[in-house]
From TrEMBL:
Family as reported in the entry's similarity comment: Belongs to the adenylate kinase family.
Catalytic activity annotation: AMP + ATP = 2 ADP
Gene3D superfamilies registered for this protein in UniProt: P-loop containing nucleotide triphosphate hydrolases (3.40.50.300)
Top-tier EC class: transferase
Gene Ontology molecular function terms on file: AMP kinase activity; ATP binding
Listed name of the protein: adenylate kinase
Cited function: Catalyzes the reversible transfer of the terminal phosphate group between ATP and AMP. Plays an important role in cellular energy homeostasis and in adenine nucleotide metabolism.
Length: 247
């Protein structure tokens, strides 16, 4: 099947917009201070971590290391047992996740620092992360804890759509794209992830409360946790995040 002239032009326009956006970001980042910043975002699925990560990474020129996205990208190379755990909304083994995270930290785009989204999910992972960062002569600067009631999350999750290549997140009710089904910036199609369902959400919340909430206590004892009220509109949550980080 051959492409029509119009579809070819559309593809060229989308590619040009993407390249321009990358060029502008590089220019903006070249003027930013060289201070290295390492953040952890903690919160249940649907709490808005991804939306706020997009804002933070642009402001501070950080790379966004979203464990869920990286695991989905690596799913083809995982073992059968790990794939089954992911499909049920559970957590894969520590060794698997830590290996992926440690490798991602080495990317040139992480030179000014990074945002960890979805990691660590247990105290054991937090301790392993400390070991990795200690070898690099650095540490966690801030842990943002996105606080929200479970009852609000189902509507958020089931209405969520994502732009795969950038990680931008939209919502059919709270943050719809300008044109239904396509990314505002590139015009590329949005997708709804397989795990954005009520059934998988229930399993993910159970795992979050059992395994991840102790991580908040772990970092609170180190004095680096800031609670973010995530039940507000995205712009209001962004304002609270900026205040905490003094952006």
């Amino acid at each position: 099947m051959t492409s029509s002239p119009s579809s070819s032009v559309d593809s060229e326009n989308i590619e040009s917009v993407g390249l321009m956006a990358k060029s502008l970001r590089r220019m903006k980042c070249s003027t930013k201070p060289d201070k290295r910043l390492i953040l952890i975002l903690v919160g249940p699925p649907g709490s808005g971590k991804g939306t706020q990560s997009s804002m933070i990474k642009d402001e501070y020129c950080l790379c966004h290391l979203a464990t869920g996205d990286m695991l989905r990208a690596a799913k083809a190379t995982l073992g059968v047992k790990e794939k089954e755990v992911m499909d049920k909304g559970g957590f894969v083994s520590d060794d698997c996740v830590i290996g992926i995270i440690e490798e991602a930290m080495k990317k040139p785009s992480c030179k000014k620092g990074f945002i960890l989204d979805g990691f660590p999910r247990s105290v054991v992972q937090a301790e392993k992360l400390n070991e990795i960062l200690a070898r690099q002569g650095t540490k966690i600067d801030e842990v943002l804890n996105f606080v929200i009631d479970d009852a609000i999350l189902e509507e958020r999750i089931t209405g969520r759509w994502t732009h795969p290549s950038s990680g931008r997140i939209y919502h059919t009710k709270y943050a719809p794209p300008k044109v239904h089904g396509v990314d505002d910036i590139t015009g590329e199609p949005l997708i709804q992830r397989d795990d954005d369902t009520a059934i998988v959400l229930k399993s993910r919340l159970e795992a979050y409360h059992k395994q991840t909430e102790p991580v908040i206590d772990y970092y609170a004892k180190k004095g680096v946790v800031a609670n973010i009220h995530a039940d507000k509109l995205p712009k209001d949550v962004s304002a609270e995040v900026k205040k905490v980080l003094s952006l």
